[in-house]
Amino acid sequence: MSAPSVPRRPGADALARIGHPVPPVEAADASPHTFPDGGTWRTEIPSVEGPEALAAVLKESARLDVPVHRISQGSGVWMLRDVEITEMVDACAERDIELCLFTGPRGTWDIGGSTRTDSGGAGLRARGHDALAGCVEDAVRATELGVRCLLVADEGVLWTLHRLRAAGVLPAGTTFKLSALTGPVNPASYAVYERLGADSLNVPSDLPLAHLTEIRRASRAPMDMYVEAPDDLGGYVRMYEVAELIRRGAPLYVKFGLSKAAGIYPYGAHLREHALATARERVRRGRLVLDLLARHGADGGMSPLGSRHPGELCRFPVPEGD
Length: 322
Known about the structure:
This protein is of the alpha/beta class. Helix 2 (51-64) runs parallel beside helix 9 (272-295). It has helices spanning 12-17, 51-64, 82-95, 128-144, 155-166, 187-196, 209-216, 242-249, 272-295, and strands at residues 41-45, 70-72, 98-102, 149-152, 175-178, 200-202, 223-228, 252-256. The longest helix is centred in the C-terminal third of the chain and has 24 residues, at 272-295. The radius of gyration is 19 Å and the shape is globular. The N and C termini lie far apart (39 Å). 35% of the residues lie in helices and 11% in strands.
């Protein structure tokens, strides 16, 4: 792990030359938590929808020297053939990168109309037993093919998969990542998702810094956050805040998203050129963020490559007989 450093705040030196006041850094705002390896941040390239996009990401990350801890996919296990999943598992294993695939049916693709109303209805949740069972089927299939991280968008699915993990139906080392479209927005809900079995949790990209500090007073579960969010998550670009996001939100997965790009879920070959172009650009965005951290002396504290474990987390007791 690279040693943590004391960062230079953006613009601070220049502003000091003209006597412009700079808000003080409050030590009490910093997260007291780290990953088990001692790191405060890791990297993630999201929306990598298949083997070809993964190959593009790996090639571009090597060219631009962008370290990658985790690759995630959004369309779902059910949108990939076994041979495609195996190819992605093998490619990530060769580079010692964690691969995270989304579990299946979600309300936004289901027959219910409420998700298309102004209220958004039940959102990404799995509707009914069949959708829950489909997510379980995806989880079992993916782990049998070697996937060890699953993306989940429903608290019932999360609890069910956690119980299956505790029962040995899913491998003990499987980790569950909470979707950005389900992300908790207060400390109590964040802690509840941790106790339901989440090993890392996406939070909305518009959370103010103070809310990250509040969450860290209630939970040490790793946090995932887009520093540039897709348009359907608001399109926020927070590159200049990355050092402070890490300081307050650690342990934090820094996600390199992409705004002003059409959605690609569920992915198919008809979106091939767009998917490959956006995959490469997400890596380039990552390079921009890493360069910015280096310029500000805030690039220390990254977990060693290959790190994936979240550490010991708090869980609700699994009922007897499960």
